[in-house]
Design brief:
The structure holds 5 protein chains of 5 kinds.
Chain A lengths: L1 E10 L2 E11 L4 E5 L6 H9 L6 E6 L2 E2 L5 H6 L2 E3 L12 H12 L14 H14 L14 H14 L4 E5 L10 H13 L4 E5 L3 H7 L2 E6 L2 E6 L1 H6 L1 H8 L4
Parallel strand pairs in A: 3-8, 3-9, 6-7, 7-8
Antiparallel strand pairs in A: 1-2, 1-4, 4-5, 9-10
Helix pairs in contact in A: 3-4, 3-5, 4-5
Chain B lengths: L1 H30 L7 H18 L7 H27 L6 H23 L4 E2 L9 E4 L2 E4 H23 L2 H10 L1 H6 L4 H27 L1 E2 L3 H16 L4 H21 L4 H16 L12
Antiparallel strand pairs in B: 1-4, 2-3
Chain E lengths: L1 H4 L11 H7 L3 H11 L18 H27 L7 H17 L4 H23 L4 H21 L11 E2 L15 H24 L1 H11 L1 H6 L4 H27 L1 E2 L6 H14 L6 H20 L2 H4 L3 H7 L2 H15 L7 H12 L7
Antiparallel strand pairs in E: 1-2
The structure holds adenosine-5'-triphosphate (2 copies), leucine and magnesium ion (MG) (2 copies).
Subcellular location (chain E): Cell membrane
Main location (chain E): membrane
Protein name (chain E): Branched-chain amino acid transport system permease protein
Chain lengths: 247, 296, 261, 377, 368
Amino acid sequence: MLATRGLTWRIGEVAIVDSVYLDLAPGEFLGVIGPNGAGKTSLFNLITGLRRATEGRITLDGQDIGALPPHRRARLGLGRTFQASSVFGSLSVRENVRLAVQAHRGGSMALWRRAAADREVAVAADTALDRVGLAHRGTALAGTLAHGEKRKLEIALLLAGEPRVMLLDEPMAGVSAEDVPELVAVIKSLTGDSGRAVLMVEHHMDVILELADRIAVMHHGALLACDTPETVMANPTVQEAYLGESL
Amino acid sequence: MGTVILLALTGLGLAALYFLVASGLSLVFGLADVLNFAHGLFLGVGAYGTWWAAGNLPGAGPDGFGFVFAVAFGVAAGTLVAILVELVLIRPLYSRTIEQVLVTVGLSLAGVALLQATWGADARPFPRPDWTRQVTGILGAQVPNGGLLLIIAAVLVLGAILAFLRWTRYGLVIRAGVENREMVTALGIDVRKAFTLVFAIGGAAAALAGALGGVYFGTVSPGQGSSLLIFAFIVVVIGGMGSVVGSAYAAVVVGLVQQFVNYYGTSGLGDICVVGLLAVVLLLRPQGIAGKVATA
Amino acid sequence: MSARSEPGSRAPQSRTEAALLEPILSVEDLSVRISGLHILQGVSFTVAPTGVTVLLGRNGVGKTTTLRAIVGLTPPAGEVRGTVRMGAQSLLARPTHRLVRGGLGYVPEDRCVFAGLTVAENLRLAERRGTSPAYDRVFALFPELDRRGRQRAGSLSGGQQQMLAIGRVLLNDNRLLLVDEPTKGLAPKVVTEVAEVLERVAESVPVLLVEQNLAVVRRLARDAVVLAAGKVAWTGDARELLLETALTKSLLGVGSAEVSH
Amino acid sequence: ATACGSPQDTATGGGDSAAPVKVGLVYSQSGALASYGKQYIEGFKAGLDFATKGTGKVGDRKIELTEVDDAGDPAKAVSAAKDLIGKGTKIIAGSTASGVALQVAPIAAQNKVLFISGPAATDAVTGANKYTFRSGRQSYQDVVTAKSFIGDSAGKKVVVFAQDGAFGDANEAAVKTVIGGAGATVSSVRAPASATEFTPFASQIKAAKPDLLFVAWAGTTAPAMWQSLDQQGVLSSTTVVTGLDIRSSWPTFGAAGTKISFLSHYFDGASDTEASKALKAKVSTIDLFHPDGFAAAQMVVRAVQEGGDDVDKMVTALEDWSFDGVKGKMTIRAADHALLQPMFQAKLTGSGTAFTATAQKSLTGDETAPPAVAMKG
Amino acid sequence: MTLLDITPAPAPTSPRPGRVHRIRPFLPLVALVVLVILPYSTISLPGIFEGPVNSPGTLQLLAICLIFGGLAAGYDLLFGRTGMLSFGHALYFAAGVYGTDILVTRAGLPLWQAALLTITGGTILAALLGAVALRTVGIAFAMVTLAFAQVGAILVARDFGGLTGGEEGLPLDVSGLPAGLVGVTNTVNLYWLALAYLTLVVFVVHRVSGSPTGRVLAGLRDDERRIGVLGLDPYRYKLVAFTLAGGLASTGGVVYVLIVGGASPHITSSELTLSLLVMVVLGGPGTRWGPVLGGVLYMYLDHRLTAFGTSDAVDNLPAVLSHPLSQPLFVLGTVFILAVYFFPGGLTSLAPRLSHLTRSLKPRTPPN
Ligand SMILES: Nc1ncnc2c1ncn2[C@@H]1O[C@H](COP(=O)(O)OP(=O)(O)OP(=O)(O)O)[C@@H](O)[C@H]1O
Ligand SMILES: Nc1ncnc2c1ncn2[C@@H]1O[C@H](COP(=O)(O)OP(=O)(O)OP(=O)(O)O)[C@@H](O)[C@H]1O
Ligand SMILES: CC(C)C[C@H](N)C(=O)O
Ligand SMILES: [Mg+2]
Ligand SMILES: [Mg+2]
């Protein structure tokens, strides 16, 4: 459903993202790995519209979305999390998620209706919070959350938007070992229901291996390989450039 | 021809004045991230300091070395006030931008009122060497010496600030400190000292602008600083926050535009053009002429 | 990096042996409140003068808060009680920059590189007066930083930023390093590299490390302090902790099998 | 003590014939015009003393002054006026700034109280309404005085240099009617009041080669403006006329001071009247706006004497009244309440900080009379 | 500070927290009723007001304070609630003032038509200029709005066609106005009008910030990029807030011109915008009552300090003190500076701290 064709982003002479061809099928879970600075986050930025590609096309369900601003792409069903948590710091955790739900429900411009009275939004928001295990933190200000909690809130924001294509940028970074399995389960459940596709950058190989149907490897902005986990892990270049010796 | 030269040179003189006011503002505003509405106060202190010294301080006077001494005194007074303001009022408020606004606005109101309470609301004649009132004939244009003096001073100040930023670590410390003060401290640097220094330099530049502005206008009055401030802000923003070189370019553009439009256009159009210029520059290049592109 | 020694062969001093030495850092009854929240409630532990002491615990227990309290970076709204000593010196009342100049290096959790400055400028900022900065050491570890000297740090990738953050501290000789989750967001290969770096650093400087990656912990740590709900839940030998499934299960919520993946 | 009352309660001016007469003085004690305000109030007190022969009373009734600072802000002045009127004040005087005068005048008319405007120079106060009078000069009188410098205007070329805004507009318009009406060709150069660099305007004026330059400029940038005119050789090439401001501004003219022909509302020594002696005894050196305060006090006393508590009677008493003021003979014209008064030509001599003004000529109130306008309200 | 003296001291027999909680939602209503019937009271508060509460002078002062309370609350919709730092808000207020004044005085329109036209015009102006200015963010946005406002100020000062009266201002021609709005005895009606305006603004701002849109605005304040990625167009929401705030400001202008009876150019100045910012910060940005309190207090001080400066109490002080203290702006500026250190977070931060104090002073009663 999501496809990039020769997607390229240059700053001056340097190609940060270099002619990337990527196809994401409905229901598919594609892991993205690659050394730090390979251009994974940049690729996400291009797909979600935070950066404008210098060359190439991005299509969603066959529609060219390359010229749309971020919010239009989001409305078409593209959702993402950020590598550096970006939550609404001065709103409570629950308000954060409600906002995301509301955005998903059509971005009401209502000025006079009371937002708090909207039961459906509240219920959807609490469900999302529950799923990431943050329900007990609902009233805390998002800005005061500990790092790992913010990561969970990021995912809750994503869930609330019920996107069809989800881009997860290192969701596990900084999450305590205890919570990893829980979060993995949450992410796993994302694709469980029909038709959703996930693109996930992650450096925790065990998580990637557990979740991904296919793994794409980025290196110096280009796609080095995109194949089944087994093949990718066996690839000597990947071994050498990315995995190194295991601890 | 003579008119064009005259307009260009007097325009540069005006630009120099704007730059002198803007340079300190740009340092404090662009580097220390403090929207300093009290900058006009430093200007006023510099001007009144010079005025007072020339009349009361032994050795100081309106002429020759005495005048230099008086200006030095005014600049010292402005610097001192700036340091005190930073230490007492601003220091507890870094990263609390909004409260800074309240304090600096309060300070500018109270400070100007204090000058007025002390020396009255009326403009006072400013002590200055006679040659600053005369003109120099350049290619048939009678160019006021006061303006030329401003141009020279502005060039010197520009050089000095650039040298400071380039050859010392302070520029770096301050730029880093604006982003994340805590982290600078965590690298073992006393960031507070660096910020006090910026205020001191900003205050000194402002006080110098006040003193030379006094020469230029021929008078001092309590509100003089504040009235120049709005153009200085415009210059800083057109030039790009924190870029002293940008401020210099912007000052030249603003000074020349005002001067030429005021001559060839109808009255008041000069100001509108400058303000329009500001809007256009920002809409096309929100970071200003010399500002760097901010990336996420 | 040369062949790495087996975990067991690293000739660690036993815990009892280490305890005989004066601890480099001792934290006693440290309490932190931030805007009404009692985040740390009387935390006490010591850091041995050699090797890595690791601070463990779930998200939000207060690990970062502990490190920040030690270097004096508690937010203004916060209130710190208790004592923290490095050698004979009490730390809590002293300003951060003094502590750092006195040899306390701190690598913050969220990297905190100066986004608007170039890589080279970030490093230059970390130079301390009167000492010669060990650029060769840093560049040997992270050649990337040498190559990217003119790039704005804000445009570095996450991992590159982490390298810069560690590089900044290694530029100087320190008496104690506080390192908060250095491998977060790093590619596996770099994680290994960082772990090796820290291992080597720890040979000369003691390190207090906060780390979620238990593989790294297993490799580096000799002593462990586990926090839970703002209090110390366990202190002792790190390997003892990681090998005892019952302990890891109860303290960290993971079986030891997951520890040694 | 809680009490209830009607929301429209206002105190009524006591009909008691021995009760004090309340007079409200709303003027600038702080702000940019504070020094004008100070002269005004000194003049007023001296005038009150003079007109009541030192008793401060009219008949048995004491004149009770309430001073309120408007800081030059019309909104504050209006609040103060409403407050005073609410407390039963029937006479309000003051208004240092034109903006204040223009906005207080309608309040006076709406509430039928007497308003005697002060130093505010705007022509628009004249004929504003039945209840509004003025105790100072108006821009038009300045311009008529300026005209006296060129004798026969026919065929002469006159340039007005004025700041943007109402003050400049009024002066330009006045020059066009007064001097232009007498046969001169009048053109104008206008500059924003906020301008700091005057060379372009000076060159424009120079290029126009006028026989007479009339400058209407108020504010702190005036010295820079004069310096530019001087430097570009305007002052030495033509007759330049402007209004002489307060004494403390004289030194700021610098070298330009002696090259300018001044029209003057007043300066110490311009007249030698009984009133001026009385005033000088109180304030030692008379300045520009002392006479306005003095005249206001004389008008207040007259109004109370003849009108008692009846404002309409006060108005009748003042209309067509002539009196000897500081400047000389003053007449309140019934048609529009213009205050006809002598004006002066002056010259500055000396240099540096020690200028003295000397009168060249004085014009009578009739000579400088502005054309009568229709009463607006 | 007399105003602070009247803040109720912690009463020893304060009602049980439960009851306070129950009447709390009605407190604004109670306050409103008190303010509505205030003009029927003849209480004198010497030192605080010149005359009894129902005297025209006091009502006029209160009316001005209320207007600015409303204006500040409207500005807070931009600043405190959406995080947009506009330096040109005075323009829309001034458009309201001058628009009404010109239409009534120069064009002779009846008040209701003039008001309607002005408010519509002011709102459209805000929408148009906002549409351009919002292409920038942060300090650039502040400066572009400032630039637009400066153009407005220059146009007013230039006095094109004698329309605005330049620096002298334009007194309002009251001959066509409803009799109830003219004359000192009717000041009370102006007071009620101002109160109605304040109520309107507070109600609108409250409703809007509690609405779905308001929630988005709060999100914009924290992270605009994130809002975009959630599928909402930041630009549209910001424009709505900007236009609404502009419309509220023009409405305030209409009421203000009636109260003051004229327009003067200082209301077009950037200083006025700055004062609005100061009011909001003084009270507490993003809070319901903070900006209102800030606006009221600011205007109160601004007006009353002139009286304070000339009072005997100040005159009798030694010159070193009496000179500065007789400068109203000196006192005002000093108050701002002190406020930052004594009430960080604005005046409204005082309430929780006061209640904290009450609680710690109160002897603990065993729960039953
Ligand atoms: N604005 C920019 N200017 C210059 N270089 C940039 C810019 N943005 C990104 N880069 C460079 O592009 C490369 C890719 O960065 P990106 O953040 O996409 O990496 P990544 O694959 O997400 O890495 P990580 O796993 O560490 O997060 C990096 O080398 C980075 O320094
Ligand atoms: N400035 C603050 N204001 C309020 N609460 C805070 C603040 N800083 C931290 N906290 C709270 O203190 C607790 C501990 O935070 P801390 O960052 O120390 O946790 P941590 O152990 O480092 O977690 P993580 O593993 O996620 O990094 C968290 O619940 C957090 O919400
Ligand atoms: C012509 C001068 C007497 C002008 C005076 N300064 C005024 O504005 O009233
Ligand atoms: Mg990345
Ligand atoms: Mg942490």
